[in-house]
Amino acid sequence: MSDEAHLPTEQARPQTAPRLPHALGDAGRPQGSGGPPRARPQAAVGVAPKPERLRARRDFLAANKGRRAVTDGFILLARDRADGGGVRVGFTVTKKIGNSVVRNRLKRRLRALVSESMPALASPAHDYVLIGREAGLTRDYADLTADLARAVRKVAR
């Protein structure tokens, strides 16, 4: 005797009724209560554009052939692209520094440093690569900012 002979041919109905809105509408949020969207500025005024990111290995290798400035918290590599484009910045931290958590913490510090200071310091049409060093984790942020300004001036000569 087969168990299949005793299975119903109709599918079971859902146990709960589907959710339907009330006759007066959904009481969760009144309709039409929000006004028109607020006007937003088209572009930031007086703020330098954020540098693009270097992602391709060939760009990192090309920057390695350029000028170099060594500081306590990082090494700055710079290369003039001479193509009239904008500033591009890349970040790298070797495994000698620590595990991925430590490396990512250092890269976050360097990214914050660059986004805050680099637009005013960098020369146009240049690629910059910051190689994180172990002291960059514990070095005071103001000292890192001063180091970046000094390093950019050094590679610009």
Shape verdict: elongated
Order of SSEs, N→C? EHEEEHEHH
Helix coverage percent of residues? 25-40%
CATH architecture of one domain: 2-Layer Sandwich
The CATH topology annotation of one domain reads as Ribosomal Protein S5, domain 2
**Main β sheet profile:** 5 strands, mixed
Count of DSSP H/I helices: 4
Task: Characterise this structure.
- The chain is an alpha/beta fold and 157 residues long.
- It has a domain of 86 residues: Ribosomal Protein S5, domain 2 (2-Layer Sandwich).
- Helix content is 32%, strand content 16%.
- The chain has a five-stranded mixed sheet with strand order 1-4-5-3-2, with helices on both faces.
- The longest helix is centred in the C-terminal third of the chain and has 22 residues.
- It is elongated.
- It starts with 51 loop residues before the first strand and ends with a helix.
- 21% of the residues are buried.
- The mean pLDDT is 85.
Compile the SSE list and pairings:
Elements: E1 52-53, H1 57-64, E2 67-70, E3 74-80, E4 88-92, H2 100-121, E5 126-132, H3 135-138, H4 141-156
Parallel strand pairs: 1-4, 4-5
Antiparallel strand pairs: 2-3, 3-5
Helix pairs in contact: 2-4
Region (Disordered): 1-51
Pfam families: Ribonuclease_P
InterPro entries: Ribosomal_Su5_D2-typ_SF (IPR020568), Ribsml_uS5_D2-typ_fold_subgr (IPR014721), RNase_P (IPR000100)
Care to give the gist of this entry?
The protein is of the alpha/beta class.
